[in-house]
Specification:
2 copies of one chain form a homodimer. Chain A is mainly β. The first copy, chain A, has one domain (about 20-125): Roll (Ubiquitin-like (UB roll)). Chain A has 2 helices and 7 strands. The first copy, chain A, has helices at about 40-50, 125; strands at about 20-25, 35-40, 55, 60-65, 75-80, 90-95, 110. A 4-stranded mixed sheet of chain A has the order 2-1-6-5, with helices on one face. In chain A, strand 1 (about 20-25) and strand 2 (about 35-40) form a beta hairpin. Chain A is globular. The interface between A and B is large, with 43 and 43 residues.
């Protein structure tokens, strides 16, 4: 996954003051943008070492393996970095859907509220409520 | 560009504590992710009213029309919002290239430093140094 030919230097990602970098998850095949999330260094390192997308949840303040609850894992084929080295793309194979709402992509609505995305599952079936 | 059919409600974007929202500029045709930048409310409003991508520069602390210096404008066809309403996609027609380095996309390198993108112009020719 990370071939080195000796002529290139690993890019050092610039994490922000909270230690995070925004990550765009993009479907490797359809090129749809699936989600925007954040990663800390540990999440990027785990993504590289395991080949599966890891993020850092800002609301739960914890490292997060995408799909750990739903099973909707993201297999990461490549990591791209932008010119400023402060934003990242994970090029992924997405199992089922990226969004917890059941849509394939989190970006399933236009600004006017109309729906442009495709729903892949019923979240009530996937994220079981505790009884 | 923003048809309303009466059954949908305009989404209210959640700007962060700095008044910004991350914006992914995606090529409408190739679906390449071109750049990740930030917008404040004024930038989103101007994008909607003019049809051209506007952002807010965090380094220069000012509103910024993409291409105002280089001429590499982004005509915005659609604005998508994510499930949490705190991230946005501009679906654009990109003139020439998005990146100030001359590459079509700002995400022209892999994490290992190898180049995957295509260079479209020489930045020294486009961003003239003052003499």
């Amino acid at each position: 996954m990370y071939q080195r030919d000796g002529n290139h230097t690993m890019i050092t990602i610039k994490f922000d003051e909270k230690g995070l970098v925004p990550v765009i998850a993009q479907d490797k095949t359809t090129k749809d943008v699936l989600m925007l999330a954040y990663a800390n260094k540990e999440a990027v390192d785990l993504t590289r070492s395991t080949g599966y997308a890891h993020y850092y949840s800002r609301s739960r303040n914890k490292l997060w393996k995408k799909g750990e609850e739903s099973g909707h894992l993201q297999k990461v084929h490549e990591i791209l970095v932008d010119c400023d080295e402060d934003a990242v793309i994970y090029l992924v194979d997405q199992l089922t859907a990226a969004c917890h709402t059941g849509y394939r992509s989190c970006f399933y609505r236009r600004l006017d509220g109309t729906v442009s995305g495709e729903r892949m599952f019923d979240p009530d079936e996937v994220y079981k409520k505790s009884e």
